[in-house]
Amino acid sequence: MNTTIDDSSMLSLxxxxxxxxxxxxxxxxxxxxxxxxxxxxxxxxxxxxxQKNLHEPMYLLLCNMSVCDLIGSTAIMPRLMADFLTEVRxxxxxxCVVQAxxxxxxxxxxxxxxxxxAYDRYIAICDPLRYNSIMTTSTLVKLCSLAWAGAFxxxxxxxxxxxxxxxxxSRIGHAYCSNAALFLLSCADTTVNxxxxxxxxxxxxxxxxxxxxxxxxxxxxxxLYKRQSSSKSKAIHTCATxxxxxxxxxxxxxxxxxxxxxQNFVFYRHKGLQC
Length: 275
What we know:
The protein is mainly alpha-helical. 75% of the residues lie in helices and 3% in strands. It is a multi-pass membrane protein.
């Protein structure tokens, strides 16, 4: 019989299972990747902040993405490194909630910031003469604030719905905490949580997808009519970079959602991922 677990209890993380021989190499590999991400994003952030000639919309949006990447990577990778070095993996409920919140906040904010970046590229390429008058510092601050605040409000509501549920389980069948993993700890009805989680996913992914399709369709049409080959090449290169980042990000989110929604399938897959 399941019993309700109090808030001070520890949760077990049953994600990737690795052999003792593979634990230290995986730890070093994850550490190297995290250091590259951390140092790279801190460097980008510092250079943009302290170089006044880089205080332009495109670079300031990159600065926001750097902060976003730091939140996401720091939420998962240090904890994952610690788990590689221990056979028994436990995390407190409070720490699990904080990790899950940061992961979802990172994902939501990144989608909205990438959407703002698409709009910025649209104005820069399709209406370059009015770019400075449209993408003013005030406008950029409003757009970035809206992205961060919108993500924060959506995720706060998501976790308010989850934290209201009583818990009767203590096993998380994944390598890190997420909202879905948290509400699956409850024996109560989680229909509302599932529906709101799907709403956020569809809303954010749908909004970013529609904006990016619309803006890049306009950009493509504009590039086709550009006579200067150098301008056309620069525009296509800039947009291709943004689209690559967006595509990788969206596919990773889709993969994570599938992994978390089909818990039983994923649990056995994780059990089979032994090194």
